[in-house]
Specification:
This protein is α+β, with helices and mostly antiparallel strands and about 230 residues long. It has five helices and eleven strands, in the order E-E-H-E-E-H-E-E-E-H-E-E-E-E-H-H.
Length: about 230
Amino acid sequence: MDHHCRGSCTRGVEAVSAHRIVTSAGELHARPISTAAAVEVLRIDRSAVVLGSTQSFDLVDAERAAELGFDVVRRRSGGGVVILQQYDHLWVDVTVPRGHRLWHDDVERATWWLGEVWCDALTETIGAGVWAVHRDRLTSRGTERSVCFAALGPGEVTRDTRKVVGIAQRRTKDAARFQCTVYREIDPALHAQLLRGSLPDGLSKATGVGDNLEPLQVQVVTALTAALARAT
């Protein structure tokens, strides 16, 4: 069952600050998880193909990736492949410590509030379309799961049923880190160049936000910091 969003106005709250970090995708994914509530806007300094924690490097055409200047790394959170280039996406990490009011032991329900914040921010920034948060299990199995934006998981956001926000989750005994990604545009041709085998059909159903990426960052970071602060 999906939850539709109407948008909401938010104001920044000083209790939780947002940070910006710029480095390689490998170093960003290797960062330890803080035990404090946090919102972090992450920027890569070079392109990367990022595998989920259980995926094999054999999924990637390593020679082609090197030719095109892409690092190939594995993150510690689950899910499928994400291909990142500088300035083609918005990557925001959100940390929720255990004991925080937004913490949930159920790993699926834990993402729902996050999806709602993204959904409201997208509605405020872009407007047009039917925006919804997916409140169910992963919709796809097998090959569809190999690429992040080819499948739809709990808490992720759609516009007219097309995936816009991808969320991966990593947990320790003390906190959960939610890694959120939105693209400017989805590029199936680039995926085909870098990945071995056929692309999942579901990738063609995903979409980006175009020139709204920058204003979306302002809106969603403000909303996320406010949500974390209100719940402390």
